[in-house]
Structure formats: C-alpha cells, structure tokens
Amino acid sequence: MKFYWLCDVASRHFSGWYEATHKWSLPGAHCPKCDAIWSTHVDAYPSVDLSVLPNPEKYAARLEEDYAEFERLREQVRPLVPEGVPLWPGTEFGPLEGAAKGEFSPLVLCYPWTLLMKREAVERLQAEGLAGLKGCRTELRFRKKNPPELLELELSPLGQLHPDCLPEGWPGPCSKCGRSGFSLPEAPILDAASLSRAPDLFRLAGFLSLIIGTERFVEAARRLGYEKDLVFRELPLK
Ligand SMILES: [Zn+2]
Predict the structure, then answer these.
(1) Residues 35, 160, 88, 47: what is their CA dihedral angle, to the nearest 10 degrees?
(2) Residues less than 5 Å from ion ligand 1, measured at CB
(3) Does residue 84 register a pLDDT over 90?
(4) 67 φ, ψ to 5°?
(5) What's the Cα-to-Cα distance from 152 to each of 82, 161, 182, 232, rounded to whole Å?
C-alpha cells in the first residue's frame, strides 16, 4: 500500500477561504519537567460536544499553568473521545465556527492540518467503500445565498515517522508531557510497521499536521476529479 500526504498548493484556483476556530479546546500546558509551554492547535475532534461537562468555559485557547489542573481537565474529556486519542494540550473539539466566503473546491485544505469537504464529496468517497471518512458539520457563516455545505473530516491519529528521518540524537518525547519538540523533517519517511491497520484517511500521530491518504483514497479522489487546490504527495515507507 502506498501513502500520500495531502498538501496545499502555492497558487489556488478557487477563491474560497474561511477563518474559524473550534468551539472548545484543551488549554495549553506548562510542563513541570521539560519546562515547555506548548499546545497543538492541529488535532481536532469536531463531533465531540464538551457542553456536557461541568465547566465547559475552561476549555478555551488559554494557558493552564497548573499542570495537575490541565491533567484533570484532560481526563474529563477522555470518555468523550475515541479510544487512543492522545489529547495533547490545545486539542480542539466541537464544530468550526467562523466566517467563510468565495467558491470552494470539493476537498478544501485552506489550512494543511484541517480537511473540509463538500457533503457530496464525502458521500461519493464513502460510496467508494473507503474507511475513515467521518464528515462533521461546521458552523461557517457565509454572506451569500445558497452557501455550500462544508463538512470537517474527523481524522484518527495513527502511524509514526520513521526514525531515519528524525533529527540525529533526538532524545525522544518528554516523559511527562509527551512533547516531541522537533520540526517536520524536509523529507518525511513513514514507519511502515506503524501503518499496518491504517484507514484510508487519517492524521499522522507522529506529526499531527500531516493528513495522510492511502492509495485507495487517492485513486478514488483523482477519478472523481477532486485533486483541485491540493496535491497528493507520495511519502516513502521504511
Ligand atoms: Zn514536558
């Protein structure tokens, strides 16, 4: 099986754009062990509703200095998300809320870590029998009549980068907060053993801003004419 990174393009054909944030977010954290202050506003679970929690106002883009409190807030969310979700600081939840304008391609990658699709595109790709396509409603406001219905794909994190492409001498993630602290290698290589049970579309757990599609996904998307304003870049496996 081949794997492809869904990349944005330098110059777009469609005018569509949006500025939006998810309704809730785990706060950023200050790690008492490695002293990093960090959050990842990349991993998102748009179907997860935090309004059922006793204190949803604490789930906002802010810094929680008390690490034990951060852990408490995170554990409150855990029963609501799929098993195995890492729940890093800054993980986002709920629908995308914000403003949108212009014309959109069937697959929308305005931000490389967030994949939207028109409803028809999700349904046609699902009809191809692809696994891992969960389209969630967004709350994007358009000022025009008959706006498109854009769904956000909720992507499971799975798979790792191969150690050969990681920085030499990298000490591994922080044992307390899990932060990796390296930037994306220029030539990413996927760790084949970590992808044996991959669905057709997922987020790379080892570097969350990478959205990965299988050969089956890419073939179907190309056949349906969906390779517009994004490109499928094959990544080597090892
Ligand atoms: Zn740490």
Answers:
(1) 170
(2) 31, 33-34, 174, 176-177
(3) no
(4) -65, -35
(5) 17, 25, 27, 19
Query: How many domains does the chain divide into?
Result: 1
* Span 141-193, pLDDT tens digits: 999 889 999 999 999 999 999 999 999 999 999 999 999 999 999 999 999 99
What range defines the domain where residue 174 resides?
3-11+157-235
For 225, what's the count of Cα atoms within 13 Å in the CB-facing half-sphere? 2
* 72 within some domain: no
Distance CA 223, CA 118 (A): 16
Torsion angles phi and psi, residue 194, rounded to 5 = -85, -5
Whether 60 maps to a domain, the answer reads no
Burial class (CB in 10 A: 0-12, 13-18, 19+), 163: exposed
What's the gap in Å between 179 CA and the centre of ligand 1? 6
Dist. CA 64 → ligand 1 center (Å) = 14
Question: Has this prediction a pTM greater than 0.90?
Answer: yes
Q: Is residue 127 included in any domain, yes or no?
A: no
Question: What integer is the mean pLDDT of 90-98?
Answer: 98
Cα(23) to ligand 1 centroid in Å equals: 26
Please tell me the distance between residue 218's alpha carbon and the centre of ligand 1 in angstroms.
Answer: 37
**Tokens representing 102?**
């212009």
205: in domain: yes
